[in-house]
Design brief:
This protein has four helices and no strands. The two termini are 20 Å apart. The chain has one domain. By secondary structure, the chain is an all-alpha fold.
């Protein structure tokens, strides 16, 4: 997944946050419950999924 985020041009900090590599902080509603942030994170995941489909799931 990290490779796909990198190839999709996702900022490393965003990718680290999505895959859970952000240390020292707990997962609370206050941390995640930000609509704008969630849309940005979803966009990053969608871009990485496109790379996975193109690079690894097509003939």
């Amino acid at each position: 997944m990290s490779t796909a985020f990198d190839r999709a041009g996702i900022r490393e900090r965003t990718a680290a946050f999505i895959v859970g590599h952000k240390g020292g902080e707990t997962m609370t509603y206050g941390y995640y419950a930000k609509a704008g942030e969630l849309y940005r994170l979803k966009d990053a995941v969608d871009k990485a999924a496109t790379v996975i489909k193109q690079d690894w799931l097509t003939n």
